[in-house]
Design a protein that fits this description.
408 residues, mainly beta, Methylamine Dehydrogenase, Chain H, 5-stranded mixed sheet, 43% strand, disordered N terminus
Length: 408
Amino acid sequence: MTKRNPAAACITMLLFAAACSDGSKAVGTNRSGVVVPDEPPMTVVGLGAVRERYTAEVAARGSYAYTSTWGRRGTVRGDAVKVWDVRGDVPQLVDSVVVPGAGTTGDVQISDDGALLAVASQGGANGIYFYSLADPAHPRLLSGFAGPSVAPGGVHTVKFGRVAGRLYAFLSINPSGSGDPARLVTLDLGEPEIPRQIYARNMGNPYVHDVFVRDGVLFTALWFDGVSVWDIGGAGHGGSPAAPVLVGSVLTVGGHAHNVWWYHDASGGKRYIFVGEEGPGTYVGGETTGDVHVVDVTDFSHPVEVAFFHLDGAGAHNFAMDEQRGILYVAYYNGGVRALDVRGGLGSCTPAQRSTDGRCDLGLMGREKGPALAPRNDVSVWGVSLQWPYLYATDMLNGVWKIAAYND
């Protein structure tokens, strides 16, 4: 989510009418006009309720899930990360980590070895904090990183990435009202107790909002500057985490490039990235906008957008991916959670399934599976995290939902 005034994002539901234009068979719409497809919904198992703060991102691993908080709900700041035991149907709160002085702990991430939890902070205690998960039920503060490169805008999102066996953290820094630009900052976590900055670069128009890192390739979501592809050790252009080399870029339709997932399908293909578009909206319980964009990255130097998914009445936010089964889960704010079948060719479709600009429409292709938390009028789903066979979805208004993942 971009930095917005929480007071302006009121909890009043916007009532409007919207017609189904994505070609899916609609069995109805909710009060915000969100289309509900003719598919059996995913089963909601339980809710870990949070009423005093707005719930933001989620990261899950094993028996535990970690949810951050955002902005202000009344007089209560989003300065806490909640720890949930998710072994039962209903997530149980077992601990709460407070970042003193933070206004928002918007992003949480777990390292690939399960050793570290990263918590991004802005709106006060600007910086990034790393917690040991030696006891996953009770994270212990290990280290932090602050200073001029992450201030005054603060760390909006963080992603871990491992290159040549070494762990790094990639920080997206918010621009500030005083004119400081957005920037990407990379930390070497070879010694996680002493994070070391190895790279900083201003980028994004006006945001570098999020990144995706895998196989020595870095994708940056740059809002109106689209998505850029960087070699940091895996794309054959001599790049490294300390000296990324720009390989290619693409402007996605509509701009607002918010987040990226590089899909590695079960057959070994690495052809597509999915880009979330966070369009204008009232993001705490109201109307949202923005599509999922599919970009063919077979040639990193010439990425091409080939398809999209549009949902009337709601906009995309963050992703989780079941790569084995080829299902992309999308947090769709007031549209709940949506599951898209992304197996096979996504840029090949019939003329009737194409938009006027030539892109394939995944809705017209029948790629949407059953949703969760839709139709409802009281949800605002921010993030999703997959721990098969369950999906965990954070709802700004209600807390964290446990959902049975789609299985065909």
